[in-house]
Amino acid sequence: MRIIFCAFALLSFLCTKGKGQTISAKEKEAIHALVDTAEYYSLRDPNRCLQLVDSIFHRVPEKGNESIHVAAYIFQTSSYKMLSRKPEALQSANNAIRVANRAQDAFLQVRANFIKASIFGEYDDQDSALVYYQRVID
To answer: 130 CB contacts (<8 Å, ≥6 apart)?
Structure first.
């Protein structure tokens, strides 16, 4: 039922707004439902999650919606990790860090650096992992 709602909400969002326009509160609610759906699929069906994340990037302007973009990049990174696509996972994590730094949001910076550290940890690159875990602690 939730997936149907998300699909309907996304469809109505796409029909009413173009790129770069301000998102209303009602549309943000629909986008958050889409983000929740991407999170659901991030551990169950990484390919489906990547499709949802791509939709978020194309439909939601980055400026003013940094937390949505960082969350989407984190789900994208997790999906790439599950698919053993390390270069794409690292690029996505770098994008999350870039957006979090631009927003100057400490919570987003912690989440973005943690996901990058987890990539290195999964591939037994402990030195690189420690660098990013240290950024999380700082």
So the answer is: 117
pLDDT category at 103 given cuts 50, 70, 90 is very high
46-85 pLDDT, tens digit each: 999 999 999 999 989 999 899 999 999 999 999 999 999 9
Task: Kindly give, in sequence order, each residue whose CB lies less than 8 Å from that of residue 31, ignoring residues fewer than 6 positions away.
Answer: 9, 13, 23, 56, 59, 60, 65, 68
Q: How far is residue 110's CA from residue 50's CA, in Å, rounded to a whole number? A: 22
Choose among 108, 115, 104, 28: nearest CA to 76: 115
Question: pTM for this one?
Answer: 0.79
**DSSP letter (8 states) at residue 134:** H
